[in-house]
Amino acid sequence: MKKKANSYTLFFVITLLLAWAAGLILFAVSTTRMTPVLTDERTDAIIVLTGGSRRINTGLQLFAEGKSDQLFISGVNSGVSLNDIENMHKGSELPECCISIGYQANNTMNNAAESRLWLQSGNFHTIRLVTSNYHLNRALLEFHHSMPDLKILVHPVKEYDDWSQGFWKKVTIEYNKTLVTWLRQRFEALDILNGN
Predict the structure, then answer these.
(1) How many domains does the chain have?
(2) Global pTM value
(3) Which of 1, 74, 117, 140 has the lowest CB atom count within 10 Å?
């Protein structure tokens, strides 16, 4: 009986690992295929999530190109000023107004919460969300969860060469975080349904 139970356990663990590995491969492939959507369409705001080296400059360039009249950068380090951020930009001339920065977020869930508070200050219905391609799935989970009625146009930024060592390291970490986020949100939904 014990031997049979051990066999079932081993089968379950192997199946779980295979499912995890298959999911990781699909996640990695989807990451390499991500591209910005509706690039000619203006939105009420551009939101940039800090973390990758190219995210802020991409957001600034989109803002300079007139893709929106408002730019919000979430998760800025407390020692970085708006002037510091503007000086990072090397592209087209930036508009004189209106760039806002948030200092409160230190993770993706907080990025969504911080962005929601900022969006509530104006009449915003559409955003262009700028973040790294490997981070986009988890960011979308958090933003859709926090603001289900918001229209989001994605603008993934490529930080690593596809299939490089750095790419696999980031994608694997992000895949696991995305799974945890998805599970957390499912449990939260169950708690709501159960009246907890």
Answers:
(1) 2
(2) 0.90
(3) 1
Map residue 1 onto helix, strand or coil. Answer: coil
Sequence-ordered list of residues with C-beta below 8 angstroms from that of 82, at least 6 positions apart, any chain: 99, 101
User: Residue 102 CB: number of other CB atoms within 10 A?
Assistant: 19
Q: What is the domain range of residue 195?
A: 1-33+160-196
Phi, psi of 128 (to 5 degrees): -105, 120
Same domain for 182 and 104: no
**Cα 32 to the center of its chain, rounded Å:** 15
Q: Based on the fold, state whether residues 194 and 141 are members of the same structural domain.
A: no
- Model confidence over 34-86: pLDDT tens digits? 999 999 999 999 999 998 879 999 999 999 999 999 999 999 999 999 999 99
- Judge contact between 101 and 72, C-beta under 8 A: yes
